[in-house]
Amino acid sequence: MEQQTAKRTVLVVDDTPENIDLLKGILSPEYAIKVATNGRLALKLVTLAPKPDLILLDVMMPDMDGYAVCQQLKANEETRSIPVIFITAKGEVEDVAHGFALGAADYITKPISAPIVLARVRTHMSLHDERLHLEDLVRERTRQMETLQAELILQLGRAAEFRDNETSAHTMRMAHFTQALALEAGMNPSQAEMLRLAAMMHDVGKIGIPDDILLKPGKLTAEEFDVMKRHCEIGVKILGDHDMELLRMAREIALTHHEKWSGAGYPRGLKGENIPLIGRISAIADVFDALTSPRPYKKPWSVEDAFDLIRKEAGEHFDPRLAELFLSMEPKLREIQNTFKDAE
């Protein structure tokens, strides 16, 4: 037995019972009909499931006219995409223009013609379906592109790690510390997630540092350290000048994650809030993980000892407000450490 397709829903809004009966008679063979006899009831009905696929809206109603109803529908994220067709005796050019300016899809003038009503409803149902389909395709394509970008970013970060004494776990921990601190500082979740991806490339410039300096197990000389400092600007060159927001953030982090609040950092000697916020956030995350991770030339510090240094350097190396927030996040930081452990 063939399964019947559920009827699409049309909401008819009119304060005149005769008009409602007429429209129901025209549309009910093809569509499920909801009815509202005033604007306020219509605004309530659109929030209930099933939401209407299209709204036929009378203009001349007491208390709240159709224009006001349409304006509220289009101001609401959940209802703005529902097509609205005005049905009214007001057919002057300025009335029609006003309706379209409010976001109406079409305008039908009284007296109502059954063939015209059916044709307009079918047309706008079809257009709405096509628009939704295109939006779904765009969302899926965007999701695929974001997945690809994230994978390319991760691989680019790993390319730097293959030439360094650090591990991929450092990049993952540092990126998640950065995201967590950004959220604590009030950044919205989508921006904080983008920051996490961008932070994975903070040391990509190390690809351009000679092995005898990059891989040296002991302390660098002043001349060698001057060469090492170049990795910030090398990273910016590697990341290019594309205007994609993710790459813009990555360049900013690569360039500024070694700047210090006091102005004693590198490569630009930026001071205080002249250092971009994401650079200040990344600086704390990077130093914390460097301190608490083992290196060939040192044992890992305890979280407590690393916190003592961050507390001491607040206002010197680190933004004091961000340092205070970071020190309040110990449970989250330990959770990240346990999730992204170095390989044994």
For the record, the CATH architecture of the largest domain stands as Orthogonal Bundle
Q: Characterize the biggest β-sheet.
A: 5 strands, parallel
Measured distance between first and last alpha carbons: 61 Å
Work out the number of β strands. 5
Contiguous low-pLDDT stretches (5 residues minimum) are none
SSE string? EHEHEHEHEHHHHHHHHHHH
Structural class: alpha/beta
Query: Which CATH class of the largest domain is shown?
Result: Mainly Alpha
Strand order of the largest sheet: 2-1-3-4-5
The geometry reads as elongated
**Nearest-integer average pLDDT:** 90
Strand content: 5-15%
What name does the CATH topology of the largest domain carry? Hypothetical protein af1432
Oligomer: single chain
Fourth-tier CATH superfamily name of the largest domain: Hypothetical protein af1432
Helix content: 55-70%
Describe this structure in words.
With 344 residues, the chain is of the alpha/beta class. It has two domains: 9-136, 3-Layer(aba) Sandwich (Rossmann fold), CATH 3.40.50.2300; 162-339, Hypothetical protein af1432 (Orthogonal Bundle), CATH 1.10.3210.10. It has 15 helices and five strands. A five-stranded parallel beta sheet has the order 2-1-3-4-5, with helices on both faces. Helix 1 (17-27) links the parallel strand 1 and strand 2 (32-36). Helix 6 runs antiparallel to helix 7. The radius of gyration is 30 Å and the shape is elongated. The protein starts with 8 loop residues before the first strand and ends in a 5-residue tail after the last helix.
